[in-house]
Design brief:
Structural class: alpha+beta
CATH architecture of the domain at 14-139: 3-Layer(aba) Sandwich
Shape: globular
CATH superfamily of the domain at 14-139: Gcn5-related N-acetyltransferase (GNAT)
CATH class of the domain at 14-139: Alpha Beta
Number of helices: 5
Number of strands: 7
Length: 191
């Protein structure tokens, strides 16, 4: 495991959108491997990112291809946080596909490398994704969080998300059960 990044030693992370990051050949080439490393390490440590077992590299490549395709169609936003040329975090939202739900999007993932947690990268990624949603005309941004993820729940509440539902013991990880907490940010009310 890599040592944690010190607050004093790290320059402010550079947040890039999908177009910016994929237009830089050096960043584009390492994106799949870096995203796979972050997601598989976090899931391996028990993070609630939609997988029970760490995802394969192919699964992460498929996910990135899907999100990048949606970004090109104007139906998603992807934000990447770099310290130097090292990817330390990523997050994205995807617009709902149903015609009646098109003004809305689901914030599907925000993941920060374990060595860079506590540096405000998750907040910066989420703030950027909210700004992207607002700029794209998204009216309501939704997400769901595993009930034991106190840090994410705290972050999203601090950014104005409110709980609109909860499924008790819905998420099954082996013998353990967790609530699935649904949250929303109504951008219509925020100007």
């Amino acid at each position: 495991m890599k040592p944690a990044i010190s607050r004093d030693a790290v320059p402010r992370p550079l947040l890039l959108g999908a177009v910016e990051a994929t237009s830089d050949p050096a960043l584009r080439e390492g994106l799949a491997d870096s995203a796979h490393r972050i997601l598989s390490d976090l899931v391996g440590e028990g993070a609630a990112l939609g997988w029970v077992e760490p995802p394969s590299r192919d699964e992460v490549v498929e996910l990135l291809d899907h999100v990048l395709s949606a970004v090109r169609a104007g139906d998603a936003a992807l934000r990447l946080a770099y310290v130097g040329h090292r990817l330390v975090g990523l997050g994205y939202w995807v617009r709902y596909a149903r015609p009646t739900h098109r003004p809305h999007a689901d914030l599907e993932k925000v993941a920060v490398d374990a060595t860079a947690q506590g540096l405000g990268i998750g907040r910066a990624l989420t703030d950027s994704l909210i700004a992207d949603a607002r700029e794209t005309g998204i009216e309501v941004l939704t997400l769901d969080v595993r009930g034991d993820n106190a840090g994410a729940l705290r972050l999203y509440r601090s950014l104005g998300f409110t709980e609109y539902g909860r499924l008790a013991d819905f998420v099954a990880v082996g013998e353990r059960r967790y609530d699935k907490v649904f949250q929303m940010l109504d951008l219509r009310r925020q100007g």
